[in-house]
Amino acid sequence: MNIHQLRRFGFGIVKWLLLAAVLLWAAFPIVFMVMSSFKPPGEIWAYPPRLWGSTATLSNYEEIGRYSPTYFRDLGNSVQVTLGGVLLTILTATAAAFVFSRIRTGWLKLPGLLIIVIRMFPPIVVIIPLFPLMSALGLLDTVTPLILAGTAFSVSIATMLLKAFIDDIPVELEQAAMIDGCNQFQAFVRITLPLIAPGIAAVVVFVAVGLWNEYLFALIFTSTEARTAPVTIAIAMSNPDGARWGQLLAMSTIHLVPVVVLVMAVHKQLVQGMTTGAVKG
Amino acid sequence: MRLSRPSVIALVLLTPLLAALGFFIVVPAFQLLWISLTNLTPGRPAEFIGLDNYGYVLSDPAFIAALLRNIAFVLVVVVLEVGVGFAIALVLQLRFPLRSLWFAIILAPFAVSPIVAVVMWKYMLDPTFGIVNYAIASLGLPTVPWMTDAATSMAVIIIVAVWKEFAFTTIVLFAALTSIPKELYEAAHVDGANPWQNLIHIKIPLIAPAIAIVLLFRIIFTLREFGIPWTLTGGGPGTATEILSIYLYKQAFRYSDFGAGAAIGWIMLAVTVLLSSFLIRRTYRGMFPEDR
């Protein structure tokens, strides 16, 4: 081996070590928590800490119902909020993105500016005015305010991302379909939407992650019946009698796995969307 | 006045969007302004009290402390996010097989909810039995009290926040690094530049605009951080980790002082919009390019 080969070999090792460090930082907390959720309850706090238990068991999962009896119902509430919010957001944002991408009318600049400004608004500012309103409408402790407020805080970014994906499709394709007798919107739905399906999937996941993980609105607008899973996990963690960590890790794992899988599945389009949203505007 | 056909179509298709934004964000924002000028508390009619809430909040030492704490928190988190994100982007620039898989893994923390991130880090950072202190002790270094100590509990919040959000910085800076023309490196190679000089004289200057934009974005979105600090420490021990969002929450929903809460809300909103003005103008130009 000459000195150049040696250097290249050394560089190769350093390079892979660096990647290993990066992956360890990103993934270790997740992997460690998921593995620990299958430890026997007595081994959760074993010292020295171990990466996995002596056997893999579901007993932490079986214990969830005992200490957080509403957890699975609360997961159901989270599913309702997420599905309802995603559906409303995507319908609303697709219609709006079509307008901003395909229609040229001077006054559109005003709603355009509105969504750009509102996208920056912190959700915490609306909880004070919305709380008395939801109370007066009898909507506290229902999933309705979570779906509607969640949608309102998702549509701006969803519209901007979808517009960017639509802009990439040449309008000539739609015009060809219009010659065949479609109107402009039909042409958009039949030609352009299928072409941006991967982009729509990424926006769906992006919005779903936000709604599924949402904590603030759920904390303020629900108490018992409509409570969502994140709030229940937080309550279990701050149990005054001490948190039951095996159960907590199991609840967290259930909450985490679906979104992590979804995000990893559409990561290419998500990366594209994040880059568009930030860099290209 | 007759609207043109495209205008009618646009108006119809935009109605759901405008209704959602109007009912749940625009109108509440103005209501918030009104509430901040009253002594509203649930179950009692509000009276107009002018700017008293602002006077009360701005002269409350707890508010000033929360504000300063929030500024320090935001600066540390954002600098770490950009530092960690940039370092990881540089690592990913080295050619690896299966790069798409590594990106998928790096994006995973973005999917994790704040409360679940708190659970996993609290488990790892337990001062006595946690795996992190075990690793530190195995290296012969002094262990860290983490959540049990006022100074280090802020560090825990910072770690969790950085871990959850660094992927955004990595991805944006990676894209910026990838867009640097190869000819520059070739020219630098001819001049005998080493990788360090490439970093200082080519990479950093050329992606400086992207770094600036990422910094601004992350400052704005870190300023409002609530879920992680609230579930991790609730602002404690004492008020050691009480930042603005927690101060607001406590004023409004613990002490039922909606007026004071609203005043803090408006201060936060004003700061956010002010900080965002550059990004807003930039995005607007990107959306309606014919204006340039």
TrEMBL record, chain A:
Places the protein is found: Cell membrane
Keyword Transmembrane helix among record annotations: yes
Record-linked InterPro entries: BP-dep_ABC_trans_perm, MetI-like, MetI-like_sf
Keyword list, A-Z: Cell membrane, Membrane, Transmembrane, Transmembrane helix, Transport
TM region(s), chain numbering: 12-35, 79-100, 112-134, 146-166, 187-209, 248-266
GO BP terms in the entry: transmembrane transport
GO cellular component, one term: plasma membrane
Superkingdom per UniProt: Bacteria
Membrane topology: Multi-pass membrane protein
PROSITE patterns xref list: ABC_TM1 (PS50928)
Segments forming domain ABC transmembrane type-1: 75-266
CDD domains to which the protein is assigned, alphabetical: TM_PBP2
Keyword Disulfide bond set for record: no
PANTHER family the UniProt entry points to: INNER MEMBRANE ABC TRANSPORTER PERMEASE PROTEIN YCJP (PTHR32243:SF18), MALTOSE TRANSPORT SYSTEM PERMEASE-RELATED (PTHR32243)
Family the entry assigns: Belongs to the binding-protein-dependent transport system permease family.
Protein name, entry field: ABC transmembrane type-1 domain-containing protein
Protein's organism: Devosia insulae DS-56
